[in-house]
Amino acid sequence: MKKTLNILLISILLLMGTYMLTGCTNNEQPNVTDNPATPIAPATPSNPSTPSEQTYPINPVLNLKTVTFFTTFSDKYYMKYKSDVEDINGQPIKNAIIEISVDGKKMATNVQDAGYGIIVNETDIIYIMHNEKMYMIMEGGSSENNSNIFGDLNKNATEAFIESGNKEINGTSYYFESFYDNLTEKTNKTIFYFDNNDKLKYMETIADGENSLIEIVEFNTNVKQSLFNIPSGYTEGSLY
Prior knowledge:
The chain has one domain: outer membrane lipoprotein receptor (LolB), chain A, CATH 2.50.20. It is about 15% helix and about 40% strand. It has helices at about 1-25, 65-70, 155-160, and strands spanning about 55, 75-85, 90-105, 105-110, 115-120, 125-130, 135-140, 160-170, 170-180, 190-195, 200-205, 210-220, 235.
């Protein structure tokens, strides 16, 4: 019973984390105009102790890569990334592969390395336990289209955008853009890192003084439909 509750708790936290990571731009993205960006000179690095990091002041007409990237997705996408997680027993797993599929009102997250997953449709939440080859169904699905995850990219634009620049991760320099997650408090933020081909490579969240960095393996519109299916041979379990 305790193990089952641990699985449920981890799954809920994972799902919440997924919405936080992909939803941090909700109603907080910079405006993008058809006008070319005004040339700007480099400013003093925000962190002088990190010579590889160079930041630039806010420019409302800057053509931001984050906006361009996320507006290519609507209500369907597939995301695979690496992150440190815990298994159902609370043991840490380094660089676990996490998969997310979103298709309209359906959303599925799978962490095969940690032995669990979760499927959310319009009516139910389904918890998958791979090691036990078991699943549990609970009422309470999603009634809203998951395109809301990316939000309206034109609201609160200037206020949400903090800065852009370049920073090294594992010896490679990446262009980054950072945004406030909350326009009222302006404490927590999310940073998006892009490679030279404008592909999203890393996402970093800074909340309550703690940093969390994930590596993007895939992010495209080729939805992995198999994540919405209960694996063959799994039996239905119960909390009671």
